[in-house]
């Protein structure tokens, strides 16, 4: 069944796909109009312990940074100067048949030269990649499948015609004609998940009686487009029969224990809203079909360009353009924010089609109304939850949750968002028993995708709200209740898996409990309310721990130095603004004594040197297949990964550090031996200090000296690695320079001596020789059932004042706690926290898109109505953070981009409850809702 | 099964919902009367008062009308409440006619009783608004008796012409009594009494023209029933959008009214008639006559109000072509909006508008006049030109009252 | 399509050309001058990513949203876009950053950088205003919030921008009045 796959990277990147050679030009940022801004300004590193500023900082404060959206034909080397423009026409209703256009609505003089409709696409055999479903453009006579369904694309040969026509047509009520009414469309859910676990006699660390990890998953049937779970229970039966047996046991026990008065039940419905990612840069493409060169060029604003390459080539290969296009060149530019909204978006495919029919380079650029209408959203969840707590011990006994997830009109990542949401609801707590189900449904709403949070924003906050409520109803301090229930390192999660990293929840909880905002909350409330009689004051706490990673991470990195010891780094990850480029460049310092002076992000070409290939989906392949394929030293479960899911700091850093260590071990260390003329060197005694490598009493060696020697002597001067992680890292054995050694990677290529003179700057595959591994140990495929096992926790302590009349919520004080392992660059982490808080505040208090006809799909939404958090909404002068010191030198660099936005939501909800006495289960808690709730008589 | 029965029962109750309690009725009437607008300070709790109401004689602060015994109306009997509402006579003396008893005297006794039961069950809030700041002799309440004697005749009944529809009669009551629309929309004499012979002819308040809402004006501007309904429920329509105090009237009052009552109000305002479709578009002539006005329209206005004034999207900004303010006889609001701009305003989570920048720093009187003349002749069928002097006068008035200070 | 002649000074350089009359200032900068440092965020004047600095006749500065204003509004005027904020050499290379640019760098104020041009420009205007009307020290934070709270940032949550701005104002003589 297609919907089973928790797959964020189903599609494979190959060098040649269906006869089309794919080329990537990821370094558009270097072409910025004569400004070599990709090359770091000399002083970004600064003299301090961390970088002085971001490597891309100067370009960004000076307007030199060229984002994907900024490129015009004239900026592209080799392209014609003429720029054409495309406009996608979209439906703002769903209940009637589309019956053609009133072309007379196009202003005179602003006529498009090409009108692309469903018919055109059909004639040319153009079909969306499977991932996106069908009906790229709605055919005449059909009703739109969802609000905002595209019906046509118009191409214009100059900007003015485009701008004129777009203003006349975008909001026109007459341009698209509608015919008879049709009944609402129903479809089967996109996917369903069920997570049942019952702890065994051995407790949290022992064998489970039943869990997805041990027993596997089972799925419902769909009747009348609703999920119907199997009913037959049998303790000794199939995975589903046993699952249903235990699910029945769980429910019976709840009934008995609560009737007997032993357990307290917190039951409730929890709803979240449709949220727009509102990345600042609306999506855009620029594409050119170079007919003579049989080459299709695409400039993207995508977080997942690798996936685009593969799927775009397939699209072309299946169409009548197959013979006309031999090459696909994908230029992935810098992205002006994404938050998941640009990960596997359907948008670039419209740009691609525009390019296919264009007579010159065609630019397709959403304005903000269009971005609201057609951009990916955050899934709304509707949960029915039961939390059972032992009244005497305050220990959580059981968690039940039924989740309905609205995926919108196209599937996108709805299956895996539902799965991640379901597997994350446990948050930091341990549950001996759980029965969690999640169904991702089709609807006529705008489709939702992998927006920041990925289901966990929704479900973990529901959990935190339940815990806060349980604390109140049981008369226990909320942090005390959390301490009693926080899971421990080595304990199983709701899926039966054991998280791979040390958890430090207790430490965070203890610190928050001691903070004056918490410890003195009663006093502070009294003082504030005396001073400000128009306000209620309240304090709230919440904690979240976000899994990060996808269970199929495949980072690549290459590090090399030139004769002068200048370090260059290339990584597969792209820069979305989070500072990946800066932190990865900085990361080399520990191993190689200096940061990278160049960091190429979103590198693609170089990895060809690794010669790797993949076969089946890493999520669904059998152990036997993996075992068989592992024998081929060039096989890997996944070649390339998307820049999403908080992947850079943990996964990319691992590859970067491995490459740096290999380069040190096989390049700098032998060079040092030669220069020091010391055969035996104990690596443990080597130290980088003040830019020099020190060993005992020997004179220190600069990186430049070492590099020159390595180049001269034909030593390793560049190391390129590929790693694979399925909740554990793959490791492989290599024989190098007569030495057998295990590295935590599965692919390796090396450069020896000077560059081969292949031309161009940067890191080139031509310089590298693949080194075949002698053996590899991949994590077992059964770990796929573990779903997620990497976690980074954040907690938020917030105090608010609620206006008794208007319901407005003012954040008075805010203290965050973050445990991110070893942080790489403090300011980047703090900036992430602050940005996450702002997004979380918006989710909690302001942001909402209504469903259906009033919603974003009607094309009339923009920031005048959709309220995001502004500076005055986030206590901009009163935010404090505490980043826990790493527990050890070997703590991982944890991914945090998602978790930071989460706990502030439930913390605000609780603070509002403590202020007003009113408990809300749904988000957002808007001023309008609060005003009515506080003044019910009015 | 029991659930279904209960559901049916609810339906049946719903069907006879006209038997509403006095409190519910009072709540509805209080919304109709928009009591909350004046009796709530910015950012304050509802009905506790404290909103400053500027008058030519100084500032009056609205009172606490929650049933707090010390600071509100907790000690009022129904008779006290009636006297306040309909005669402006409070237990401690006469009310200033900022309290619209000059309209409320028309409310019938049953409605007064319903309002009383509603207000008396509100949660009492202890709060004393600031003292009024009035100049002599207006600060002496004794003068109010004389004012009432001169300008207030509570014996005068609401005229009920026999040739009007029942809907019109209901609208007449809503508009004139509870709705007290005339209090803003009617010009006032030197003593701030409504000039009843010019009822609804429009009046400048807080720097905005509370526009002429007489049937002739509305019909000339082409208001259809649907447009007025949209305006009263969403604060915007193709004929324009509401701002200032009238936006708050929609926010707190009109959008909470029943469809029947809104229809009654509309019927009354259009005087049982319909607007004829009108098209004043005369772009070419206007462009020829006011070329620099057109240039400025394109430079300053078209980005939001659309090419040729046709609008881009109503949720964003209203079109100028067909705009009632452009079609209005009085150009005051055209000029004032250009000079001072408009604040952002939110009606609900899903309805909100961005503000409009004011251009008083950048555009001089002659340019504003030319711009206004361009718009009014292009889309308003204007009969008279606006002079630079007229702009200067409005600019001065706005400036004197501090309405031009906002930074952009 | 009708065109209008446009002439103005952009970043110290005179610019003159004919463009379609309904061209917005933002489109003029991007499509005609190839200055893409000024960013489209919402297109309806809300997010303030697109503001440029307009020099008034009296020499004082104003920040103006370019997405909702026609190019005609800027005819004959002097404007500064983000590209003109740093001191540049003849070939466009950057020679020196402005204090506010340096402060945003130092504070890691931004991530994706889309809103940065708007913040740089609006802060420039605020500094100019404070030069004319210094603010009491105890009102500084409110003044900054009031001047910049319309600017939307989605990555970094404002804190680092505001701290940087405060630091620049406090370290520039004459912008803050000490409170007695």
UniProtKB/TrEMBL annotation, chain A:
A GO MF term: iron ion binding
InterPro entries in alphabetical order: Ald_Oxase/Xan_DH_a/b_sf, Ald_Oxase/xanthine_DH-like, AldOxase/xan_DH_MoCoBD1, AldOxase/xan_DH_MoCoBD2, AldOxase/xan_DH_Mopterin-bd_sf
Residue ranges occupied by any Aldehyde oxidase/xanthine dehydrogenase second molybdopterin binding domain in the UniProt entry: 512-603, 640-849
Gene3D superfamilies hit by this protein: Aldehyde oxidase/xanthine dehydrogenase, a/b hammerhead (3.90.1170.50), Aldehyde oxidase/xanthine dehydrogenase, molybdopterin binding domain (3.30.365.10)
One Pfam match: MoCoBD_2
Domain Aldehyde oxidase/xanthine dehydrogenase first molybdopterin binding: 260-486
PANTHER family given in the database record: ALDEHYDE OXIDOREDUCTASE MOLYBDENUM-BINDING SUBUNIT PAOC, XANTHINE DEHYDROGENASE
Name of the protein this chain belongs to: CO/xanthine dehydrogenase Mo-binding subunit
Organism of derivation: Microbulbifer rhizosphaerae
Origin organism lineage: Bacteria, Pseudomonadati, Pseudomonadota, Gammaproteobacteria, Cellvibrionales
From TrEMBL, chain B:
Co-factor(s): heme c
Chain residues that bind heme c 1: 35, 38-39
Segment forming the signal sequence: 1-19
Coiled-coil intervals: none
Cofactor: how and how many bound: Binds 3 heme c groups covalently per subunit.
GO MF entries: electron transfer activity; heme binding; iron ion binding; oxidoreductase activity, acting on CH-OH group of donors
Keywords assigned: Heme, Iron, Metal-binding, Signal
Pfam families the UniProt entry points to: Cytochrom_C
Residues reported to bind heme c 3: 301, 304-305
Cytochrome c domain residues: 21-123, 166-273, 288-379
One CC-aspect GO term: membrane
Binding sites annotated in the UniProt record for heme c 2: 181, 184-185
Protein name: Mono/diheme cytochrome c family protein
Automatic annotation (TrEMBL), chain C:
Domain 2Fe-2S ferredoxin-type intervals: 4-85
Domain of life where this protein originates: Bacteria
Database matches in Gene3D superfamilies: 3.10.20.30, [2Fe-2S]-binding domain
Molecular-function GO term, any one: oxidoreductase activity, acting on the aldehyde or oxo group of donors
Pfam families to which the protein is assigned, alphabetical: Fer2, Fer2_2
InterPro entries assigned: 2Fe-2S-bd, 2Fe-2S-bd_dom_sf, 2Fe-2S_ferredoxin-like_sf, 2Fe-2S_ferredoxin-type, Aldehyde_Oxdr_Iron-Sulfur, Beta-grasp_dom_sf
Identification of the protein by name: Aerobic-type carbon monoxide dehydrogenase small subunit (CoxS/CutS family)
């Amino acid at each position: 069944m297609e919907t089973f796959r928790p797959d964020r990277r189903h599609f494979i990147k190959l060098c040649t796909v269906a006869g089309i050679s794919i080329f990537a030009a990821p370094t558009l940022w270097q072409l910025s109009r004569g400004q070599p801004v990709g090359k770091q300004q000399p002083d970004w590193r600064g003299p301090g312990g961390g970088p002085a500023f971001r490597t891309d900082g100067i370009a960004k404060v000076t307007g030199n940074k060229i984002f994907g959206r900024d490129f015009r034909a004239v900026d592209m080397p080799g392209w014609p100067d003429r720029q054409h423009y495309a406009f996608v026409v979209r439906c703002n209703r769903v209940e009637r048949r589309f019956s053609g256009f009133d072309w007379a609505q196009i202003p005179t003089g602003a006529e498009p030269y090409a009108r692309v409709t469903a018919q055109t696409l059909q004639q040319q055999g153009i079909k969306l990649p499977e991932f996106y479903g069908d009906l790229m453009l709605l055919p005449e006579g059909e009703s739109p499948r969802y609000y905002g369904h595209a019906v046509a694309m118009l191409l214009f040969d100059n900007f003015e015609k485009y701008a004129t026509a777009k203003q006349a047509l975008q909001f026109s009520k007459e341009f698209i004609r509608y015919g008879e009414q049709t009944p609402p469309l129903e479809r089967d859910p996109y996917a369903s998940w069920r997570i049942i676990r019952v702890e065994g006699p051995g407790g949290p660390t022992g064998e489970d009686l039943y869990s997805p990890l041990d027993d596997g998953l089972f799925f419902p049937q769909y009747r009348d487009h609703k999920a119907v779970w199997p009913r037959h229970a049998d303790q000794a039966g199939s995975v589903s029969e046993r699952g249903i047996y235990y699910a029945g046991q769980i429910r019976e026990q709840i009934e008995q224990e609560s009737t007997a008065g032993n357990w307290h039940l917190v039951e409730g419905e929890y709803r979240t809203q449709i949220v727009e990612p509102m990345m600042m840069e609306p999506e855009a493409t620029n594409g050119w079909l170079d007919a003579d060169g049989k080459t299709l060029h695409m400039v993207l604003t995508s977080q997942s360009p690798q996936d685009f390459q593969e799927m775009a080539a397939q699209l072309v290969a299946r169409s009548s353009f197959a013979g006309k296009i031999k090459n696909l060149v994908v230029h992935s530019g810098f992205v002006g924010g994404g938050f998941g909204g640009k990960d596997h978006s359907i948008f670039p495919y419209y740009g691609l089609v525009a390019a296919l029919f264009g007579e010159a380079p065609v630019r397709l650029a959403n304005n903000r109304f269009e971005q609201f209408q057609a951009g990916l959203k955050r899934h709304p969840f509707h949960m029915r939850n039961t939390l059972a707590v032992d009244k005497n011990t305050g220990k959580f006994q059981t968690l039940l949750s039924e989740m309905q997830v609205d995926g919108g009109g196209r599937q996108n990542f709805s299956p895996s968002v539902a799965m991640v949401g379901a597997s994350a609801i446990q948050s930091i707590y341990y549950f001996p028993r759980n029965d969690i189900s999640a169904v991702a449904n089709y609807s006529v709403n705008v489709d939702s995708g992998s927006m920041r949070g990925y289901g966990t924003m929704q479900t973990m906050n529901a959990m935190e709200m339940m815990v806060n409520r349980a604390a109140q109803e049981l008369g226990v301090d909320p942090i005390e209740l959390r301490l009693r229930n926080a899971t421990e390192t080595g304990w199983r999660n709701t899926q039966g898996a054991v998280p791979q990293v040390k958890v430090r929840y207790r430490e965070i909880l203890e610190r928050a409990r001691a903070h004056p905002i918490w410890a003195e909350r009663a006093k502070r409330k009294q003082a504030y309310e005396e001073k400000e009689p128009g306000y209620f004051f309240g304090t709230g706490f919440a904690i979240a721990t976000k899994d990060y990673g996808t269970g199929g991470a495949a980072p690549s990195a290459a590090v090399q130095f030139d004769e002068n010891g200048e370090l260059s780094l290339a990584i597969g990850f792209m820069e979305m603004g989070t500072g990946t480029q800066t932190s990865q460049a900085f990361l080399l310092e520990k191993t190689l004594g200096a940061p990278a002076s160049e960091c190429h992000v979103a590198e693609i070409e170089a990895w060809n040197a690794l010669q790797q290939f993949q076969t089946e989906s890493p999520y669904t392949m059998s152990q036997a297949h993996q075992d068989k394929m592992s024998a081929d030293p060039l096989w890997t479960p996944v070649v390339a990964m998307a820049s999403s899911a908080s992947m850079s700091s943990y996964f990319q850093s691992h590859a970067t550090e491995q490459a740096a260590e290999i380069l040190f071990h096989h390049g700098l260390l032998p060079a040092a031996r030669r220069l020091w003329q010391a055969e035996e060197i104990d690596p443990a005694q080597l130290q980088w200090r003040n830019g020099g490598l020190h060993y005992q009493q020997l004179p220190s060696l600069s990186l430049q000296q070492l590099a020159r020697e390595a180049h001269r002597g034909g030593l390793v001067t560049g190391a390129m690695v590929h790693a694979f992680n399925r909740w554990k890292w793959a490791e492989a054995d290599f024989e190098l320079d007569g030495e057998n050694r295990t590295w935590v990677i599965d692919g390796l290529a090396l450069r020896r001596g000077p560059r081969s003179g292949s031309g161009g700057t940067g890191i080139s595959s031509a310089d590298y020789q693949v080194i075949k591994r002698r053996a590899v140990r991949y994590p077992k495929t059964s770990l796929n059932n573990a779903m997620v096992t990497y976690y980074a926790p954040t907690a938020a302590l917030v105090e608010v004042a609620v206006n008794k009349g208007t319901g407005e919520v003012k954040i008075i004080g805010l203290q965050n706690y973050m445990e991110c392992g070893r942080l790489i660059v403090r300011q980047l982490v703090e900036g992430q926290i602050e940005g996450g808080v702002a997004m979380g505040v918006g989710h909690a208090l302001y942001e909402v898109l209504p469903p259906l006809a009033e919603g974003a799909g009607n094309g009339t939404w923009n920031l005048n109505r959709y309220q995001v958090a502004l500076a005055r909404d986030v206590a901009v002068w009163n935010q404090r953070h505490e980043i826990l010191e790493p527990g050890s030198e070997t703590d991982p660099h944890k991914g945090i981009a998602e978790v930071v936005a989460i706990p502030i939501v439930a913390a605000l909800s609780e603070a509002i409850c403590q202020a007003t006495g009113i408990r809300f289960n749904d988000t957002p808690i808007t001023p309008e809702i609060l005003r009515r709730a506080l003044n019910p008589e009015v | 099964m029991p659930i279904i029965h209960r559901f049916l029962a609810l339906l049946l109750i719903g069907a006879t919902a006209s038997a509403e309690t006095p409190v519910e009725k009072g709540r509805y009437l209080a919304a109709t009367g928009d009591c909350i607008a004046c009796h709530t300070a910015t950012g304050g709790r509802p009905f506790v008062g404290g909103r400053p109401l500027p008058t030519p004689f100084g500032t009056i602060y609205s009172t606490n009308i929650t049933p707090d015994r010390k600071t509100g109306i907790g000690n009022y009997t129904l008779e006290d409440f009636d006297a306040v509402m309909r005669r402006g006579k409070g237990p401690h003396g006469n009310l200033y006619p900022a309290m619209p008893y000059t309209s409320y005297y028309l409310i019938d006794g049953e409605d007064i009783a319903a309002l009383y039961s509603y207000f008396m069950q509100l949660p009492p809030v202890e709060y004393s608004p600031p003292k009024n700041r009035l100049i002599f002799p207006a600060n002496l309440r004794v003068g109010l008796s004389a004012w009432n004697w001169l300008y207030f005749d509570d014996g005068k009944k609401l005229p009920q012409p026999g040739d009007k529809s029942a809907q019109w009669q209901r609208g007449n009551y809503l508009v004139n009594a509870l709705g007290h629309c005339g209090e803003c929309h009617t010009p006032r004499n030197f003593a701030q009494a409504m000039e009843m012979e010019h009822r609804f002819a429009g009046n400048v308040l807080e720097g905005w023209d509370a526009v002429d809402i007489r049937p002739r004006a509305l019909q000339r501007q082409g208001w259809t029933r649907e447009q007025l309904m949209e305006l009263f429920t969403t604060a915007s329509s193709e004929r324009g959008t509401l701002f200032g105090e009238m936006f708050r009237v929609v926010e707190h009052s009109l959008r909470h009214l029943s469809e029947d009552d809104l229809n009654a109000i509309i019927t009354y305002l259009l005087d049982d008639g319909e607007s004829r479709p009108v098209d004043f578009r005369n772009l070419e002539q206007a462009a020829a006559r006011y070329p620099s006005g057109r240039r400025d329209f394109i430079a300053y206005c078209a980005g939001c109000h659309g090419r040729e004034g046709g609008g881009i999207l109503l949720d964003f900004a209203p079109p100028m072509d067909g705009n009632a303010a452009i079609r209005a006889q009085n150009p005051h609001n055209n000029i004032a909006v250009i000079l001072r701009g408009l604040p952002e305003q939110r009606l609900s989570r899903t309805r909100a508008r961005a503000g409009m920048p004011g251009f008083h720093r950048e555009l001089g009187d002659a340019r504003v006049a030319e711009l206004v003349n361009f718009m009014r002749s292009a889309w308003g069928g204007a009969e008279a030109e606006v002079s630079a002097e007229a702009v200067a006068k409005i600019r001065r008035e706005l400036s004197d009252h501090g309405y031009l200070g906002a930074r952009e | 399509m009708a065109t209008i002649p446009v002439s103005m000074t952009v970043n110290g350089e005179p610019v003159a050309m004919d463009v379609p009359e309904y061209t917005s200032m933002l489109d003029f900068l991007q499509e005609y001058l190839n200055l893409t440092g000024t960013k489209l965020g919402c297109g309806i004047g809300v997010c303030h990513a697109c503001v440029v600095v307009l020099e008034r006749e009296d020499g004082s500065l104003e920040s103006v949203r370019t997405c909702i204003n026609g190019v005609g509004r800027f005819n004959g005027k002097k404007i500064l876009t983000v590209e003109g904020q740093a001191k540049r050499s003849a070939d466009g290379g950057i020679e020196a950053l402005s204090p506010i640019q340096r402060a945003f760098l130092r504070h890691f104020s931004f991530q994706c950088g889309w809103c940065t041009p708007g913040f740089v420009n609006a802060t420039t205007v605020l500094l100019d205003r404070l030069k004319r009307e210094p603010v009491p020290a105890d009102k500084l934070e409110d003044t900054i919030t009031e001047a910049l709270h319309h600017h939307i940032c989605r990555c970094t949550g404002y804190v680092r921008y505001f701290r940087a701005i405060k630091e620049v104002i406090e370290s520039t003589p004459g912008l803050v009045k000490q409170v007695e």
